[in-house]
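Changelog-adjacent note: as of this version, every example in the card shows the full chain rather than a window. The one below runs 441 residues end to end.
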Amino acid sequence: MDRGSIRSNRSTAAKISAINFINGPVSLIILTNGDKTFYLMGDKHNSKDRGCAGECITLNEQASNLINTEKKCMDINAVLHTWLLYNNQEKIETDVFYEAPFVHRSHKLRKRGVTQDLDRWGNKMWLQSLGYLFSPCDSDRNFCVYSPSVRIHSNIRHYLSDTRSVYANPFSYLAGEMPDKLNEIIEWLSTLNIIRKHIGSIINAITKPSGFSEIRQVISELRANRNSTGQYGVDVLNTIEAMARNITTKRAIVAGETPKILHRVAAQLLKLRSKDPKAVEALYNYINNISSSLTEQLVSQKDLQSLAVLKFLRDEGQEYEALAIFREFAGNLWLFCMSIGALFMDVYTIARALYYDGKEIILYTGNVHNANYLEILGTELRYKNLLTLGSLGSGNIGTMSRCISDPKLEQYLGLGKKLHSITESGTLKNAEYILNDYALA
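Full-length structure tokens:
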């Protein structure tokens, strides 16, 4: 681009005032304790519909520069590009956590060892577009235009990728696609029934270094019931056995503590304890409160005890009747597996965020996780809530908007100011040069 174009960009930036609309998230929460400030943005997955009206400032096709810079609204990818360039320019130590894998600029999505083609980056969901935007910070740090002051973390990849943990927790296999064949339903319920009896031991094994000795009985019962639990039981057994092996996790070695930490949640909490023991106690309290509530609901479910009825109906050839009974209570059981899995992932993410030295911590994740973060930070850790906008939780997208708007948004985020600063300083243009070089590398 010639110098005339650069002058034109600067002239446009000078006209930019407040930006009080963000296209993409369904919620925004800002919390602080005076030392760290958390910016929680909630995503409603699998679509970009119901966003802000009209055009917004967004990234160009190459994700190397901004277009429509005269607008008063910003797409979330443009928000983060602007924000992180500014923080790096101003040497503000920042950590970003987002719930998606890195999407390499060959238009390939790499997740759990599977490579998938993308028709176009970020075409279907905003989180995917961030994976594309942040990919230079994963593959070659020389092209990461936000370094060194900003660290980018794909929290879902970091949480799930270590084969020593198989999947993040035993509930991952039970929170996938619901079984629809009667024999698989019976195997699914049989596995969940065993987990229900030993759930306290499993939660301790996931969250506490001392908890692994408690799960031998779970392993024994899963082994003894392989015929009735099928592949679900095998997958859960493999996960728990992997947790029970004495594998040294070097990152978890803390002076005076055992280095034999086998699950990522326990390892991260142990690391954080050396830095902020009060925060760890608060996180344990949160785990106990939520898991107790969820477990109470599960234990009170008489539906798990209907296995005998389902088996009887199957043996009598009454599969239709058995499936009808299962559908009546399947949702609650599946929701339990999802909720307890999210509990571990969210505690792990917050523990990592607290361990780093970032002054600003930005989390862009599913809206359910956002509600959990608010509970952890606001209730357990006593962070002050500065701003809450949008809709929290897992509500129907028909009642939500993927547009955050408020007259105070510029006051709290300063996006117009940040864009003006990085344009005038040349930071935005320099980033474009680097990212275009990355595309050719």
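Structural remarks: The chain has two domains: 3-161+363-440, 165-345.
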